[in-house]
Design a protein that fits this description.
Blueprint lengths: L1 E5 L2 E3 L5 E8 L8 E6 L6 E6 L6 E3 L7 E6 L4 E6 L8 E9 L2 E4 L3 E5 L2
Parallel strand pairs: 2-11
Antiparallel strand pairs: 1-3, 3-8, 4-5, 4-9, 5-6, 7-8, 9-10, 9-11
Length: 115
Amino acid sequence: VQLVESGGGLVQPGGSLRLSCAASGFTFSRYPMSWYRQAPGKERELVGVISGADSNTNYADSVKGRFTVSRRNAMNTMYLQMNSLRPEDTAVYYCHTEVLGRVYWGQGTQVTVSS
């Protein structure tokens, strides 16, 4: 299993970014996928999760209405659309899944929200 994030960068407050997570090594459509983030000095926290075939989603309260998790099973890719970004969204964002009882993480992508 391999998870590779991309799309991070520096953005001004109020701006938008879209992260991608390219997955390989497992049957992508069968498994829920999640985005987590970790800010400096803080614990890693769940941002949003999307189910496998029917793409139901759930979000942390801090990002509801601003962030959208989606997936394109034909492309083995998950996305995180982030709008109305705030300085407190600054963190390393990680892609996550659990396959047959094992947890997998991507390497992370840095998102910095600053003027």
